[in-house]
Amino acid sequence: MNFRPLRLEDASFINKLRQEEDMEQLIGGAKRPVAYERDLKWVEQLILGDSQISIYFAITPSGSDEIVGYTSISEIDYRNGTCFWSGIKIDATKAGKGWGSEVALKILKFVFEELRMERCKAECLEHHEVALKMMLKVGYKQEGLMRNTVYKNGIHNNQWLLSVIREEYLELKQRFSL
């Protein structure tokens, strides 16, 4: 598995991901229909915008350039050394095959070694047990349950708040040979 920058042609794949109802119900963001043209403009803005507070990566299989998902780091705060791993959106055929753990570890390596962050936080819906299990597996620590933080699927949902700090990352680096 590799990361590469997003490309304009990735907008079609991203737009198709938005149509996957099962996935949309499990992520923290609001579900809304988005036209391909809007995703094309969004990807173009990500590519050309040179944001200092967010970074997006296309996820590709090893030995291929074809996008199978994307991930991002946002809320990058260089002064305080903190950021937010915004999670993963990946083709449903890749789910349950270790892609999530591999992406999460690669993100942690980037966050702590390239961005020199002190803390990386993440969130997941309380009932998204797969995401919670994966984040705990790769070393995130649960900090608490944030109540009624996301209105989704007709109700207000709780979210787990998790994080990894630099000291913990150094242990994870050895454990996972990063």
Q: What separation lies between the terminal Cα atoms? A: 14 Å
Overall tally of structural domains: 1
Which CATH C-level class is it?
A: Alpha Beta
CATH superfamily: Gcn5-related N-acetyltransferase (GNAT)
Question: How many β-strands, per DSSP?
Answer: 7
What strand line-up does the widest sheet have? 1-2-3-4-5-7-6
> From the alpha-carbon coordinates, what is the Rg to the nearest angstrom?
16 Å
Shape label: globular
Strand content is 25-35%
The main sheet comes to: 7 strands, mixed
Looking at how many chains there are and whether they match, the oligomeric state comes to single chain
Named CATH topology: Aminopeptidase
Going by CATH, the architecture would be: 3-Layer(aba) Sandwich
User: What's the SSE pattern?
Assistant: EHHHEEEHEHEEH
Fraction in helix: 25-40%
How would you describe what is shown here?
The structure is a single chain. With 178 residues, the protein is an alpha+beta fold. The protein has one domain (2-175): 3-Layer(aba) Sandwich (Aminopeptidase), CATH 3.40.630. It has 6 helices and 7 strands; from the N terminus they run βαααβββαβαββα. The chain has helices at residues 10-18, 21-24, 36-49, 99-114, 129-137, 166-175, and strands spanning 2-4, 55-60, 69-77, 82-90, 119-125, 141-152, 155-165. The two termini are 14 Å apart. 26% of the residues are buried. GO terms for molecular function: acyltransferase activity, transferring groups other than amino-acyl groups. It comes from Pontibacter indicus. InterPro entries: Acyl_CoA_acyltransferase, GNAT_dom.
